[in-house]
Amino acid sequence: MDSFCVEGGQFLMNGKPYTVISGAMHYFRVPRQCWYDRLLKLKECGFNTVETYTCWNLHEPNEGTFDFSGMLDIDAYISCAEALGLNVIVRPGPYICAEWDMGGLPAWLLREPALPLRCHDERFIEKVRHYYDRLLPIVKAHLLSNGGRVIMMQIENEYGSFGDDHDYMRRVAEIYQEHGIDCLLYTSDGTELSMLSGGTLPEYLCVANFGSRPRENFDALTRFRPGQPKMCGEYWVGWFDHWYGCHHVREPREVASLVREMLDEGASLNFYMFHGGTNFGFMNGANDYGTYEPTVTSYDYCALLSEAGDRTPAYYEVKRVIEKKTGRRIPLTASESEKRAYGAVRLDQICTLFDSLEAFAPAVFAPECAYMEDLGQYYGYMLYSTTLEGPLEEKPLEADFLHDRAVVFLDGRFAGIRERSRRQDEIRISLAAGESVRLDILCENMGRVNYGPNIRDRKGIRGVRTGLRYHFGWQMTPFRLDRLAALRWSELTNAQSRACAFLRGTLRVDGAPCDTFLRTDGFHKGIAIVNGFNLGRYYNDAGPQRTLFVPAEILHSGENEVIIFETDGFDRCEVCFTDTPDLGPTK
User: Fold this and answer.
1) Which residues are CB-neighbours of 356 under 8 A, at least 6 positions away?
2) Which of 140, 189, 221, 438 could potentially form a cystine with 199 if both were Cys, beta carbons 3.0 to 4.6 Å apart?
3) Which of 60, 99, 158, 307 is catalytic?
4) Bridge-partner residues for 502, per DSSP?
5) Is 393 annotated in the active site?
């Protein structure tokens, strides 16, 4: 039986000194059929370990309902890594950050406004326990002590950037132990003293997260915790992008030189990210330090593998460093996927927002607006509808607690857009006696805050008023996108701008499908769905990202359904599939 432990200030594998060279790759951001290819490329770069978070919000999308299938089959993912001879580090959270919606915490936690998060409150601990009761037995089967290759597991995640409740941290570790998790446990934090003191436990290994200045950061770690191995738990090789920002890149030789420094220090490290993948669907997170900044759909991260899984220049630079340090040269056998420019696809069918509301979830009627979470609409969109009656002097229309974006209609006509921390169109209403107007507000959850003190990020609208007067009496319709088959389509005869509409067309694929990239030029903001798979958001008015990655695995030979849901209006009625990604201008 293999063993992995800490002794004498170093890692030992089967009693011999061992350097962990790990790369992060999240199974839930990568199509299942691509796992082997990406893991093989990790091994062929010289890595001996793969690291992954687990995503509570996808594994338990509704309280008590669990999903470990398809892209969420962590058992199959770990097995795939083991088949390649890779060790595995698992980071189960329960909070993971990861630029993932609410840091991986399920949105249904927000249905209990008084429920504390990430602290030693028994109500929260019990919800964590129920999740772990399903997750940890899967991981346990892959521990070294059970013949698998899981060598380390993290307790919580960067907790010192949030709190200092050590009783909570110990409760998480105790649940691991109650489930027979006997591998090396550790914490990871930034190297500020406040982070290390808040997020570590003296009885467990602590590692440091950083993206530069290795010697300085390792010195800080050693001063705080002398006599333990040096390890960078997250070596940030790139960074993530926000809408309205630029695409982050990093010089490959700089990435490699820092790896060389760490290995020369005798340190272990985990690349964050080796392969980033994609925030498919509505799972991107956001930051909020006074300005709300949602993360884009691509999680390319300027990683060693691109979003589509191709080796980047940094891959080869890092491979050379590892080969020189270890003396092991592994030939490259994995191939890059073929990319195909399928060209333009005309979207010749349309269903406007108000044509098929009954196709979505039944409307809920209430005196005042409700948060999306209170109606079980955790992601995407919800429509708030009412009728305003005159007389009413001209007043501005205001929406309180708008999280995060509202497209407003008066009698079915586009009236303006309000966006959290950004666009604020002025919308004014005046009504004579006997007049009325139907008010519809399509509210979009653009991603919950995933880091810092604002992770309790509820979505929707809390109150709507004209001037100082609140309006009561609302119909709220959650948009359940798994019900698109019930939409009533009609022929699109021209390309005039129509806000809030579904458009549909057909992509013809001859032969075996290839990876491709979807351009939505001429559209403004919305989502793209191919064969029922939500590729994620586009936001051409904000940038930087201009294409959406379309994995070959969601396509098939023959006809493929393409649906665009555009919220702001479109200037053309076709999209284009290209063989080249466009993540926007760089910093």
Assistant:
1) 486, 487, 488
2) 189
3) 158
4) 351, 565
5) no
Q: Name the burial class of residue 442, with classes exposed (0-12), middle (13-18) and buried (19+) by CB atoms within 10 angstroms of its CB.
A: buried
Residues 6+ apart with CB under 8 A from 455: 95, 102, 103, 105, 117, 162, 448, 449
Stated as kind and residue range, the H or E segment containing 186 is strand 184-189
pLDDT of residue 113: 86
Residue 331 confidence (pLDDT) above 60 = yes
The mean pLDDT of the chain is: 96
Whether the per-residue pLDDT at 494 is higher than 90: the answer is: no
Query: Does 254 participate in catalysis according to the annotation?
Result: no
How many Å apart are CA 380 and CA 444, to the nearest integer? 6
Element containing residue 221 per DSSP (H, E): helix 214-224
Contact 410, 437 (CB under 8 A): yes
State yes or no: pLDDT of 497 exceeds 60. no
CA angle 389, 391, 393 (to 5 degrees): 115
Nearest Cα to 311, choosing from 21, 26, 23?
23
On the question of a cis peptide bond just before residue 273, with omega within 30 degrees of 0, the verdict is yes
| Cβ contact 187:156 at 8 Å | yes
Quick one: DSSP state of residue 295?
B
CA pair distance 143, 72, nearest whole angstrom? 19
Distance CA 72, CA 104 (A): 13
Q: What is the average pLDDT across 521-530? A: 97
Angle between helix 122-140 and helix 166-178 axes, rounded to 10 deg: 40
pLDDT confidence band for 499 (50 / 70 / 90): confident
Place of tokens 């509820």: 458
Q: Is 580 exposed, middle or buried (0-12, 13-18, 19+ CB in 10 A)?
A: exposed
Q: Which DSSP string do the residues of 414-443 spell out, in sequence order?
A: EEEEEETTS-B---EEEE-TT-EEEEEEEE
Which residue, 110, 166, 146, is CA-closest to 455?
110
Catalytic-labelled residue, pool 51, 99, 156, 234? 234
The alpha carbon of residue 125 and the mean position of all alpha carbons in its chain are separated, in whole angstroms, by 24
For residue 174, give the 3-state DSSP assignment.
helix
What is the CB neighbour count within 10 angstroms for residue 572? Answer: 14
Handedness of CA 72, 101, 376, 549 (dihedral sign): negative
Q: Which residues contact 541 (CB under 8 A, 6 or more apart)?
A: 524, 525, 568
Its pTM stands at 0.97
Q: What is the pLDDT of residues 538-553, one digit of tens each?
A: 999 999 999 999 999 9
47: how many CB neighbours lie within 10 A of its CB? 25
Closest to 179 measured CA to CA, from 223, 148, 134: 134
CA–CA gap between residue 35 and residue 76 (Å, rounded)? 10
- Classified as helix, coil or strand, 587 is coil
